[in-house]
Amino acid sequence: MRENNYVLAADVGGTNLRVAGITGDGNIIHQTSADTPQTGSAEDLIDSIVRNAESCIAAIGRSPQAFGLAIAALVNTSEGRVLASPNLPELDGLELGPLISSRLKIPVLLENDATAAGIGERWLGASKHVDNSIFVTIGTGIGGGLILDGRPYRGVDGTAGEIGHILVEPGGAECGCGSRGCVEQYASATALVRIAKGLIASDGPVPADQVDVPLTAKGIYELAVGGEAFAIEAFRVMGRYLGIALADLINVLNPEMIVIGGGGSGGWDFFIAAMQSAIRENAFRDPAGRVKLVRASLGDAAGILGAARVAIDRTSGS
Questions:
Q1: Domain range holding 272?
Q2: To 5 degrees, how large is the angle CA 213–CA 219–CA 222?
Q3: Are residues 182 and 85 in the same domain?
Q4: For residue 270, what is the enclosing H or E element?
C-alpha cells in the first residue's frame, strides 16, 4: 500500500458506530462516531454507516482503497453477508458488504468484531508478530478471534471463534444461542452480576454498607477492590469457568498466546489466578505451560484497526 493511500475502517456495535480513515502503518488520520440507529431499520443503519464513511472521505480529501467493516455478528466474509446479529437483528441475512459497496463504489470487507480485534492486536498490539494466538473479549457476552499460522481462522462458514459458546456446565444456565451451560453464561460481565447475586442470596441480605453500591460488573469490581468477600468469590468463580473453556482451546489449538480484552478484562487481578489454576488442571501440561496469558493493549481501537488490516490485506492481495 502506497504511503499516500489509506483504507476506511468501521466498528459497528449495538450502541455505537465509528468510521475512520487509516493508513498502511495503522495511523488514524480522521475518525467519526455516531450512535447506532435504534429504529430497527436496516436501511437506517446502512445510511448511517455510509454517511459517516462519506464524511471521513470528504475530510481526508481523497478516496480510500477499500473499506473494512467489523460488526458484532456472525458473518460470511466471502459473501459480505450477515448471518446473524443478536444486537442488530435487522441485518440478519443481508449482503451488507455489497450493499454498502454499491453506494460508496469501493470494495467492502465484512469481519466479525472479535476476529477483527484479534487481527488488530496481532498487527499492532499485545500479540504483535505472534503467529498462533487466541483473542478473547469479555463484555456483555464473550467473543473470540483465532489467529493460526499468522492468519485469521474463520472456518468454512465464517463462524469460527465463537468461544462464548463452549460448554462448561452441562445442563446449566440457558444461553441466548439456544444451548445451556455456555461459558458466556458463567464468565461474562453479565454472568459476573448473576454469580454475585447468587452468592448474596445464599448468604442472606446485602450488608448495609453495600446498599449504595450498584450490583453491576463495575460495582462488583469496586467491592472486590474494597475486600468484600462475595465480590472476590464472584470473580474467582468467573475465572475458573473461563479457565475451563480456555483449557479446551489450548488442548485443541496449542496457541502461543491468549489475549484477553473487553471491559470485563478490567477484573484481571481478581480472576487470573483461578483462570490459570483451571487451565493447569484441565489442559495438557506442555501446552498449558507454554501459553502466555496477556491483557489486550489496544483497548477500543483493536476492532477498527483490525478491520483496517483486513482492508489493507485486500488491497495488497494477501
A1: 128-295
A2: 100
A3: no
A4: helix 268-282
Q: Which residues pair with 17 in a beta bridge?
A: 12, 34
Q: How far is CA 84 from CA 68, 128, 228, 261, in A?
A: 18, 30, 40, 23
Q: How many residues comprise the chain? A: 318
Strands 133-138 and 257-261 come out as parallel
Gap between the Cα atoms of 253 and 47, Å rounded: 40
β-pairing, 67-71 vs 74-76, is unpaired
Bigger pLDDT: 209 vs 16: 16
User: Taking the C-alpha atoms of 234, 238, 243 and 246 in order, what is their torsion angle to the nearest 10 degrees?
Assistant: -170
Q: How many domains does the chain have?
A: 2
C-alpha cell of residue 169: 456446565
C-alpha cell at 184: 458466556
- In eight-state DSSP terms, residue 179 is -
Phi, psi of 293 (to 5 degrees): -105, 115
Q: Write down the pTM of the prediction.
A: 0.92
Q: Work out the average pLDDT over 100-106.
A: 97
Same domain, 185 and 63: no
DSSP 120-154: HHHHHSTTTT-SSEEEEEESSSEEEEEEETTEEE-
**What pLDDT digit, counting tens, does each position of 283-293 carry?**
999 999 999 99
